[in-house]
Hints:
Layout: H1 12-50, E1 58-63, E2 66-71, H2 72-117
Helix pairs in contact: 1-2
GO molecular function, one term: unfolded protein binding
Pfam families: Prefoldin_2 (PF01920)
Organism: Salix purpurea (Purple osier willow)
Amino acid sequence: MAESDPKEPINEQGVVNMYNAMRTELNQIYSKTTELEMDASEHSLVINAIQPLDQSRRCYRMIGGVLVERTVKEVLPAVQRNKEGIEEVIARLNEAAEKKKREIADFEDKVQDQDKKV
């Protein structure tokens, strides 16, 4: 069994460890996705709050831990770009989660097939 695929577990404990590692990785992807979805939601709130304002109005933005003064005209596009970037990352994480779920399902099927042979 170990000769065909070096990643294949040799014993029952190895199977459990690999399965737990895959589940942990999937949970981490879900956690990061949730965190980024909250960030995107906050960006939407900011966009909705400043969009109707006068473009020359003073606006403050946190950049690298420093609060800087800008105008709505300068800040709004930057916040929109950040939100779009976050949404792209969320989409990639969702794809990674689907891939990981398929990998886990394949692993479960493989282990069940091996159990039936033994």
